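Fold this: AAA+ ATPase domain-containing protein
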Amino acid sequence: EDKGSTVVVVTGESGIGKSTAARAVLGDRTVNRSFDICVWVCLPAKSRVDKYLDQIWKQSDEQTHHGCGRSEFKQVLAKMKSLVVLDGMDSMDELTGVLRELPGGAKGSRIVVTTQLPDEEIKQRRSGVTTVEVKSLEQADCVEFLDKVFSGRCRRVYKENQDKFVDKIYKISGGLPLAVVLLGGLLYFKDHETQWNEVFDLLESYARKRLIKRLLTVSYATMPTILKSCFLYFAAMPPNVPLDLKKLHRLWSAEGIAESESGGGFTENEVLARCLRVLVSRGLVERMEDGTKICIHQSVHGFAKEIAHETGFMESDSKFGIRGASTVRGLSIHNYVDRVIRIDKENCFPKLRTLLGDFAEDSITEVAHAKRGLRKSRLEFLRHSKFLRVVDLHGVKLGTLPDSIGDMIHLRYLGLRSCCLMDLPPSVAKLLNLETLDITDNQVQSIVDEFWKIKKLKHVLAEKLTLPLSAASMDLVTELETLQGVRLSSQWTQENCPIKNMAKIFSLAVVGATAACVRLLAKALEEKRALHHLKIAGDRIPLLRSSRYQPLQYLQLDGKILSDEGAAQSYHTRRPITASRIVLRSSCMSQELLGRFLSQPIVNELELLDNSFTDLKLLLQGDAFKYLKKLKLGNLKELEELVIGESAVPNLMTLEIFGCPKLKKIQGLKNLEQLKNLFFFDMPEIVAQLEAVDKELSGKIKHVRTSAWASTT
């Protein structure tokens, strides 16, 4: 009933569970359906205010498909009923700046802030704020929490000795949730009572240390060497911010962390995956977003950063005040104010093996004035760093790389994302140990042909990178696992297509594809058992078929899909290439063509977007959709009717529809036992129709009326 938004500040000591509680509220379906948008923003400390607004804008566009520009967004947000969570805002100046820029929102809007700031300081600086203090668990509540935490091999010991151990665990942890999680991690692999008592005795020997540090000290002291290296690497990452797991694995691999564990029948990826599982089991890091991201708690990060500094593993700095440069082996720089590296070129880093950097990308104002010329950074300070293995910079304004980059012959990982690069020097071909090149969000369109002869190359990530015209230039690239943002050569043939030699290819993303190139690609991929992710973007894409093809995890096709009616009879004996998750854009498919494409009962998630389906009626029937859990229909301008056949989608849990102005009828949703969420945008007639047919559906529907606030733009 409030006018505008209410600010709710959740306070409490580190590890008390503020973020966990806020995430639980945000993930509640009833709460979610009560707001137009539900946004979670967690950025590194000292991030600029416009970065927070950018995150809110992006997430709201994903949820409501409003399509308004960044400059118009604040006007639109002012009319939305929104729930915005600002997680980990521990600077009063940053919090005040963000709240000042955020518009009030429609009636009933909420801004939830999690912070360690004291109530008194918040109320002095910001009036009209509701504060909620989270306190430690009482022992009765702690028992319930312990039952969830103590799993794995230790669960039997806990259950058999619960009466004996509950008091001891509560006395050690004080009811602090993070302490309980870390203690559970210490005991996770202990399946004998004597081992539990040994852990308790070890903790007692560190009784003078503060609680969290005591638990982390024991955890670190009992780690094998390889696990310590994996853990300390998080000191270079920002706390509480989700990190991409695939990228983390590539960095660990380039560092050679798993080399000491080579052999024993395990691959490098298996060893690193096992290390990550152990870190999660110990409560040191947490998986997020369906397991594709990982994050580290602020308190745990502080400990890792301290140990990394003491052991010389990694130096972290945000003010470029690097001391003892001659002995630094790992350097992590975080600058969220601008895009410049301010390290004097006279500084020498002769022992440097790792350089990681995260910088502020351009704001809207900077982009608008880009022609004035922003200051560019140089990497002269690396000229003596001949032992570099990893360089990963994000957001720093480089413009170009020095030709001397080719002298860093030990370099295994070269990441230059959003660095304003137009090209790469030919000397990159001299990096014979390079495993990963990441130049996403740059304008590099070609690399010297000799680069593709690097035998150890595993991952290449770009935007619109042209591959060599001569397939012979890539014959040696047999270790490639990731190839993203590349153009295929029109001069390749079935005999000399180099992708045939990439037996280990796991993820492939192609842009600017022609029909001839795609047919050639499909043939080359027939033997690729390791392939799990495939993206193809082009004007015309033939219906992909294969005789030996394994189902993918993810398939995305952007472009008109051509019928294969005129193909040879032998071609029709092959099965269409399919996946458990399929995204189609601008595919212009008919019901008949879609039926042939989805002839196998494999798909779990299906997205038909941007006129990917052009018939008036979409019919889901037969066995093809029996495993379908999520269906998204967006911007299908001609669709008038959606019909779900009886027992056709028994596992459907989520249906989302937007941008379908002619859709007037949906049949078959009644009695779908697994259906949990229905998201509709500007579809009052459909919502009224469904609620009239089945009253139970009304509790599952979220209807966003974008027309109420989109008129602002």
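The CA atoms of residues 113 and 208 lie 33 Å apart. The longest strand covers residues 552-562.
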